[in-house]
């Protein structure tokens, strides 16, 4: 038997390589509205105007997220053009950096096998893979935060001086991506471990003051950009008022204002939201993560403190979204991997075996159910990949010793089959119903670079995918423009009759099915009821005498 088996190390590296490819498999799927398409359009405006300090959206100044991700997107656009994959590539590369640092950190804290399993867990966690389609700030943060923690850990362990500088630099990148709250998991990891292990001299070492100073220096580009756009121009209207300070928003309103629900952007929270969200977001490993938190004999507290403190703060916040958890997945992965490594028997525990078998079964049932219920367009590439992966799933029995490793790698392969189905069949079919991007591509082909104007509707995908400018008219401006030359509107079909009644001549160019694909519901997913769930958008050519 031994001669016919691969080494566990070789199999884990093959699985990690496959996981990387699966995470890249959605690189060319149309950018999802609203947030992803909004961010893509903001960076596109940067490149088109040559202004890399000011952020604009919806025709006006935009104050919500810091600049760093937009600078990364703009660099990618300069290299590769305004494409879907150019928008997603920097974020996924930062996520891969997170996988690399997860490996380095787990290998230092535990051993190489734990590190390999941690990377497999990280790159197969369901919401992490899904987030590569709906790209926001979190893939960037996932890489930056674990990188900063790793380098600060090496500095705390009296590593070379450059680890302190690197830790501060990655911390600054994180702050310039999401704001000051990005420091919470970083500071909690280092300070929490040193406190619990009573390493007072290291905790109070002057190196941490230097780290704070360096981080402050490294975020100067962000502070300057905010100051010159907003603080120097109090006449700008933001959040419905003037005199808004970009610096104050960055340090307070965008973070603590949301946490305490006192800022201009507010939400409503449930203290148990992330507890049940994690159940599906970290599949197929979530139950083992829950179990890991109750084990005894922790060898280190970096991962525990980073994960637990941040998780509690997120749960207490009034502003909650599922993707917020992604930044903690590297720490969750290391915690889970160490828990699984501690299952000494080659076959693991009964809980382990039953849990993974049930989850694997659920994954395959879910794929079959979606095929029957949704009926996406068939894709030969997926069929071939699924057959090859199914073969690997079966052949693993001959190549892996012990139920623990066999079920672990089979769970990874099951997630590959699921996520390739989502990325190569489900999402491509579903995105045809995102009318803004579909209409933009039609206009690029048929309207010969004619500008399009929004009328009674909005879309963030259209400005990104449309080659021509997107114009914004009020009623008077539309009448003046349409009197000079025909204007193409992106609107709802019902507006044609309304415009005719007030003197416009209207020609229906094209009608598009419309659904907010980021807000799925059963009537849309069900093929039999989908048409009733759809709205309509259209391109309408109007003129006025």
Descriptors:
single chain, 545 residues, alpha/beta, five-stranded mixed sheet, two-stranded antiparallel sheet, 7 strands
Q: What can you see in these coordinates?
A:
The chain has 26 helices and 7 strands. It has helices spanning 8-24, 35-49, 68-80, 84-109, 112-124, 126-130, 138-156, 162-178, 183-196, 200-203, 207-218, 220-231, 246-259, 273-281, 286-292, 302-316, 329-341, 350-374, 380-399, 403-430, 435-446, 461-465, 475-484, 495-501, 522-525, 530-533, and strands at 56-57, 60-61, 452-454, 470-472, 487-491, 504-514, 535-544. A 5-stranded mixed beta sheet has the order 4-3-5-7-6. A two-stranded antiparallel sheet has the order 1-2. The longest helix is centred in the C-terminal third of the chain and has 28 residues, at 403-430.
Note the main sheet: 5 strands, mixed
Structural Rg: 25 Å
What's the helix count?
A: 26
Low-confidence stretches: none
Classification by helices and strands: alpha/beta
Q: How much helical structure, as a percent, in the residues?
A: 55-70%
**Total beta strands:** 7
- Which sequence of strands runs across the widest sheet? 4-3-5-7-6
What's the average pLDDT? Answer: 90
First-last Cα distance: 86 Å
Cα shape:
globular
Strand content: 5-15%
Assembly type of the chains comes to single chain
Secondary structure blueprint with pairings:
Blueprint: H1 8-24, H2 35-49, E1 56-57, E2 60-61, H3 68-80, H4 84-109, H5 112-124, H6 126-130, H7 138-156, H8 162-178, H9 183-196, H10 200-203, H11 207-218, H12 220-231, H13 246-259, H14 273-281, H15 286-292, H16 302-316, H17 329-341, H18 350-374, H19 380-399, H20 403-430, H21 435-446, E3 452-454, H22 461-465, E4 470-472, H23 475-484, E5 487-491, H24 495-501, E6 504-514, H25 522-525, H26 530-533, E7 535-544
Parallel strand pairs: 3-4, 3-5
Antiparallel strand pairs: 1-2, 5-7, 6-7
Helix pairs in contact: 1-5, 1-20, 2-3, 3-4, 4-5, 4-7, 4-17, 5-17, 7-8, 7-9, 8-11, 9-16, 15-17, 16-17, 18-20, 19-20
């Amino acid at each position: 038997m031994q001669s016919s088996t691969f080494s566990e190390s070789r199999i884990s590296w093959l699985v990690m390589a496959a996981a990387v490819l699966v995470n890249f498999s959605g690189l060319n799927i149309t950018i999802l509205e609203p947030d992803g398409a909004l961010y893509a359009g903001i960076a596109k405006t940067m490149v088109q105007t040559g202004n890399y300090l000011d952020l604009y959206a919806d025709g006006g100044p935009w104050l919500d997220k810091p600049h760093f991700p937009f600078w990364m997107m703009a660099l990618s656009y300069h290299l590769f053009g305004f494409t879907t994959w150019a928008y997603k590539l920097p974020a996924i590369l930062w996520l891969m950096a997170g996988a690399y640092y997860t490996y380095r950190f787990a290998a230092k804290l535990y051993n190489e096998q734990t590190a390999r399993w941690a990377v497999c867990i990280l790159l197969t966690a369901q919401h992490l893979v899904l987030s590569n389609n709906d790209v926001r700030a979190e893939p960037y943060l996932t890489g930056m935060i674990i990188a900063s923690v790793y380098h600060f850990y090496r500095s705390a362990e009296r590593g070379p001086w450059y680890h302190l500088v690197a830790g501060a630099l990655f911390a600054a990148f994180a702050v310039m991506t999401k704001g000051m709250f990005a420091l919470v998991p970083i500071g909690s990891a280092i300070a929490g471990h040193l406190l619990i292990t009573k390493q007072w001299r290291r905790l109070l070492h002057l190196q941490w003051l230097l780290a704070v100073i360096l981080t402050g220096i490294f975020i100067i580009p962000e502070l300057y950009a905010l100051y010159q756009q907003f603080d120097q121009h109090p006449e700008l209207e933001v959040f419905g008022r003037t005199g808004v300070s970009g610096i104050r928003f960055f340090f307070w309103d965008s973070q603590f204002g949301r946490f305490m629900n006192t800022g201009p952007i507010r939400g409503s929270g449930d203290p148990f939201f992330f507890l049940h969200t994690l159940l599906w977001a970290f599949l197929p490993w979530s139950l083992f993560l829950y179990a890991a938190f109750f084990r005894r004999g922790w060898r280190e507290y970096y991962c525990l403190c980073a994960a637990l403190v941040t998780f509690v703060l997120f749960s207490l916040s009034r502003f909650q979204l599922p993707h917020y958890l992604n930044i903690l997945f590297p720490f969750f992965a290391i915690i889970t991997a160490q828990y699984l490594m501690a299952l000494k028997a080659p076959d693991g525990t009964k809980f382990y075996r039953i849990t993974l078998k049930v989850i694997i079964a659920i994954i395959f049932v879910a794929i079959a159910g979606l095929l029957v219920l949704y009926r996406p367009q068939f894709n030969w590439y997926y069929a071939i990949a699924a057959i090859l992966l199914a073969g690997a799933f079966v052949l693993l029995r001959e190549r892996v010793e012990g139920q623990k490793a066999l079920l672990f790698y089979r769970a990874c392969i099951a997630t590959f089959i699921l996520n390739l189905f989502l990325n190569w069949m489900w999402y491509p079919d579903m995105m045809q119903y995102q009318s803004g991007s579909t209409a933009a591509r039609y206009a690029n082909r048929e309207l010969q670079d004619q500008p399009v104007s929004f009328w009674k509707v909005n879309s963030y995908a259209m400005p990104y995918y449309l080659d021509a400018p997107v114009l914004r008219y009020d009623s008077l401006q539309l009448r003046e423009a349409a009197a000079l030359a025909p204007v193409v509107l992106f609107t709802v079909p019902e507006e044609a009759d309304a415009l005719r009644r007030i003197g416009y001549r209207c020609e229906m160019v094209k009608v598009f099915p419309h659904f907010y694909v980021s807000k799925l519901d059963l009537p849309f997913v069900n093929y039999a009821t989908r048409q009733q769930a759809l709205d309509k958008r259209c391109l309408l050519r109007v003129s006025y005498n």
